[in-house]
Amino acid sequence: MRIPTFILLALCFSLQVAAKVQLPSIFTDNMVLQQQSAVRLWGFAKPNARLSIVGSWDKKAYILQVPASGKWNLKILTPKAGGPYTLGFNDGSLLSLHNILIGEVWLCSGQSNMEMALRGNSSPILNASEIILNADNPSLRLYRVSRAATLAPTAELKGQWMESTSATARDFSALAFQYGQILQKKLKVPVGIILSSTGGTMIEAWMSKNSLNAFPEVKVPESLDPAQAVHKEPTVLYNGMIAPLLGYGIKGFLWLQGESNRHEPELYEKLFPAMVADWRKNWGLGDIPFYYIQIAPYGGTDKTRSGPRLREAQLNAAKIIPNSGMVSALDVGMETDIHFMDKTTLAQRSAYWALGKTYGIKGIGYQSPELKSMEIKGDTAVLTFNYAPYLTSYRKPLTLFEIAGEDKKFYPAKAMIKANQVNVSSQDVARPVAVRYAYKEWVKAELFNNDGLPASSFRTDNW
């Protein structure tokens, strides 16, 4: 029997009125709230009801009148790191969240090398068994956003905050887990890691429609074909996996993506800063830290130098994006596997940025050597570097430098380190004009500072 529409509407309305407060799944037991801040909460409650929200850390009651739509949001103040606490929501019916911690929250996002779980897939994770064995940590909480691709921003989200254990860590991002683990151990406060990542995706999928309006060459689809790889389409992951998180109190971002954009490095160099600016604007937390990991070298068959050109775009972005920092991955790549096994090194280097720059802990080096200037002295190009009072190759020969004259033809160069400089020359180039370092698809880093951080590949020309 067909139920009349007016009866269905009446039933829906009565259920909504009778229901308890409804919260997005980012607000669950075991969650971490950002410490010493005004964190935003939102959800649904009885229309026109008086909603009271109380945190056990200060017993302060935040009271608001729920709009007729039932949709509400407000901000509450959090104390210094601590817990566990409870958080109660009462609109006539009480909903309580338990085992809540106050601490530091980071969002980790990107594609497969960020997404890869400790258990690995067709590629293993280096030292995974030991990492999983030592994963029990009630002060580290993990939240993984389920994959969702939509053409319009959604409020829906699937996920659950979990305490870090061997079982929960096993299925969590190897890189993001270790990043959070290092922060928690060093800061000695609770840490929450939100993972929103999907393999095989281009940056356009993580960008909002508004942010892509300035790029007419990027076409946003009007519909999605379920038979196709819908997660690769522009805007869909932003809509399904970032938009539902907007406003949740976080300290900063960690990003690893770019492999899928190798074919368009010039466009990526414009899209990336636009994405960061849009995320920050929509989050409403100002220019909070945005740290990102440069793509690692991989393969040797591509003659277009798409890999080094994409790495170059990421290197240049650090000069454009305020309050950002780039981690060089030039020494962790694998020639025959884009899913490099060593996620530990990059988790450590990412944590160095957060601990040294964001948290201001003295003594932690976090910046890789960066070319400052080039001076031509006779037949030698003298390169001077920032963030490296001393450069090192760990007593190994430097083989990745190339040098060219006005004919734009590059030759393998002899390179010698002197403190924070590298002298580059070749018997085939009498009058140098340009130098390149590691500007190839597949390389293994040779130039480091004394903190063990590798210089990115770079070039002084724009040929």
TrEMBL record:
Signal peptide: 1-19
Gene3D superfamilies to which the protein is assigned, alphabetical: SGNH hydrolase (3.40.50.1110)
Keywords: Hydrolase, Signal
Molecular function terms from GO: sialate O-acetylesterase activity
Keyword flag Signal: yes
Biological process, per Gene Ontology: carbohydrate metabolic process
Keyword Signal: yes
Sialate O-acetylesterase domain location: 104-343
Domain of life where this protein originates: Bacteria
Pfam name, any one: SASA
SUPFAM superfamilies xrefs: SGNH hydrolase
Protein name per UniProt: Sialate O-acetylesterase
Taxonomic source organism: Pedobacter heparinus (strain ATCC 13125 / DSM 2366 / CIP 104194 / JCM 7457 / NBRC 12017 / NCIMB 9290 / NRRL B-14731 / HIM 762-3)
